Please model this.
Amino acid sequence: MKEDEGGAWPFALDVIQKTHATAPFRGKTWPQRYAIATGELRESLVVPDPARVAGERVLVFDDVYTEGLTILEVARALRLAGAAEVSQIVLARQPWGRR
Model:
């Protein structure tokens, strides 16, 4: 696990991993994107060391928020691994209606 202990906040870069490629959301209808997220994406996410998140408050950084399906699945995997709380910070939100 890589961590940056230089500041007041510890950053871990490999707390959750996507084990295999999944179908892209782009060009899909909402029901199709939902099925990908709750199916193959959910199955591909693993927390290799659950002890690392057990009882912890986890903050997830994401680059773009479109509709939240990916972050919901990441949060779900972290909570199932024992995280007490999962919050997110997103750098950009895609304008509604542009997918």
Q: What stands out?
A: Residues 12-93 form one domain. The beta strands are 3-4, 11-12, 17-18, 45-46, 57-65, 85-93. The chain has a mean pLDDT of 88. Residues 30-44 form the longest helix (15 residues).
